[in-house]
């Protein structure tokens, strides 16, 4: 495979360790700290919502969700990963021409069959620039590589789109038990600790009850892909469950201005 078609890691060494051994040990440490005794999640999760900050801040919360996948590591073969764009404004949902995404833990092939299914939609376009430095997708990959066996990836950076436009794309690649949907999002940003807790609790209740209309712009940076997932989850009768809800004041840092992190799972009731 020619190197120009492979996306190298952009935030290894900043958001998470660039050394593969150190990275593996850190992720395993996060998994060892989670109990994953969530009786509200019945069977295999179909979709997850996880945060995308530096691991020191959001890694423990993300591990709470990814730990649920361990019993299904050989069953899940495809991961559809959606996250908001932080680098440049985009319209709709952005594919890339990359044929693989690399991390310190190895290479993940892009699922070209799923690309073919969605590239025809008017809300989907190619933008390598949207992907090249974007962290909202990249930070999830080492967790997925640790907890799953072999899998292919459909990464999408989400910009200005309606919840229904996102749901249409998800419906096209929804698949069965072999396909996992992951939505990348942090919650409130840079609020005092107590205020952030209150707002993030309201956001979590809206997510759990699939009330996508109740999530406003300042409640979650990945609001649009979250809303798209909730539209499709409601249509299919999935149940949402809150797995973990903390902020940077709980995990690492000051409580003066915090960023909220939540983990959620969706499964058949």
Span between N and C termini? 42 Å
Can you give the mean pLDDT? 95
Number of strands: 12
**How would you sum up the major sheet?**
9 strands, mixed
Oligomeric state of shown chains = single chain
What's the structural domain tally?
1
- Structural class comes to alpha/beta
In helices, the fraction of residues equals 25-40%
Kindly provide the name of the CATH class: Alpha Beta
Shape: globular
Order of helices and strands: EHEHEEEEHEHHHEHEEHHEHE
Instruction: Please name the CATH topology.
Output: Protocatechuate 4,5-dioxygenase, Chain B
Discrete helix count: 10
Based on the coordinates given, report the CATH architecture: 3-Layer(aba) Sandwich
How many whole angstroms does the radius of gyration measure? 17 Å
**Considering the protein shown, what is the CATH homologous superfamily?**
LigB-like
Low-confidence segments, ≥5 residues, pLDDT <50?
A: none
Portion in beta strands: 15-25%
């Amino acid at each position: 495979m020619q190197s120009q078609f492979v996306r190298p890691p952009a935030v290894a060494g900043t958001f998470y360790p660039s050394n593969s051994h150190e990275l593996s040990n850190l992720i395993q440490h996060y998994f060892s700290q989670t109990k994953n005794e969530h009786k509200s999640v019945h069977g295999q999760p179909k979709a997850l919502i996880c945060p995308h900050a530096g691991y020191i801040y959001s890694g423990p919360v993300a591990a709470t969700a990814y730990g649920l996948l361990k019993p299904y590591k050989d069953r899940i073969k495809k991961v559809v990963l959606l996250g908001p764009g932080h680098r440049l404004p985009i319209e709709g949902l952005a594919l890339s021409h990359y044929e693989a995404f690399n991390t310190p833990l190895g290479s993940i092939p892009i699922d070209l069959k799923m690309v073919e299914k969605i590239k025809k939609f008017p809300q989907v376009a190619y933008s390598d620039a949207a992907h090249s430095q974007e962290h909202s997708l990249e930070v999830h990959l080492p967790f997925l590589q640790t907890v799953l066996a072999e899998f292919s990836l459909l990464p999408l950076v989400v910009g200005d789109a309606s919840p229904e436009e996102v749901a249409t794309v998800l419906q096209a690649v929804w698949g069965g038990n072999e396909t996992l949907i992951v939505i990348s999002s942090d919650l409130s940003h840079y609020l005092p600790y107590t205020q952030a807790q209150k707002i993030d609790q309201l956001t979590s209740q809206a997510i759990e009850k699939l009330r996508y209309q109740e999530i406003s712009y300042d409640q979650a940076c990945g609001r649009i892909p979250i809303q798209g997932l909730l539209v499709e989850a409601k249509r299919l009768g999935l149940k949402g469950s809150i797995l973990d809800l903390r902020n940077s004041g709980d995990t690492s840092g000051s409580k003066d201005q915090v960023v909220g992190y939540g983990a959620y799972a969706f499964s058949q009731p």
